[in-house]
Write a structure and sequence with these properties.
This protein is mainly α. It has helices at 3-16, 24-43, 50-59, 66-73, 77-89, 111-132, 137-153, and strands at 64-65, 93-98, 101-109.
């Protein structure tokens, strides 16, 4: 099957399949794709991607285990290792063994990670504002409030 026909089949599958293009899953997926694109574009001058930004966010909460970080990202822990390796090589994060349980590695931001995060946060906020700019302020507040309710109810 050619690449063009594969793309067309995928498009038809989404358009005619389940979940519905008018449904929550599809909308979440499309919003996430655009959010990631906008965030990647905004962070490009810093040399980081959206996944790096989110790992800096999570690591900034204090010592968080590598396993917990993978859970928060919805990743298999083994798939997170190469990403953390790269961020560690760039001096953004550091890992330390938990002295009470040598199987656990804590992940935390380095000083450089704090500096990059401080520069990235306003760029991320601008990307978010850009994505929401087509909505009136009241709709933005209502959307975020509804999403926060969904998050609170999913725990």
């Amino acid at each position: 099957m050619s690449r063009t026909s594969t793309k067309m089949s995928a498009r038809n599958c989404v358009a005619g399949g389940d979940p519905s293009p008018k449904g929550l899953w599809y909308c979440n997926w499309k919003i996430w794709l655009e959010a990631r694109r906008l965030l990647d574009d905004a962070l490009e001058p810093l040399g980081i991607k959206s996944k790096d930004f989110w790992l800096l966010v999570i690591a900034g909460t204090g010592d968080v285990s590598q396993h917990e970080m993978a859970e928060l990202c919805g990743l298999d822990p083994s798939s997170l290792v190469p990403v953390l390796d790269g961020m560690e090589r760039r001096g953004l994060l550091q890992r330390q063994r938990n002295p009470n349980d040598r199987r656990v590695q804590w992940v935390q931001r380095t000083e450089e990670g704090h500096r990059v995060y401080a520069r990235a946060l306003p760029l991320a906020q601008q990307a978010e504002a850009q994505q929401l700019s087509s909505l009136p302020a009241a709709d933005r507040r209502q959307l975020v409030a509804a999403m926060q309710k969904l998050i609170a109810n999913s725990k």
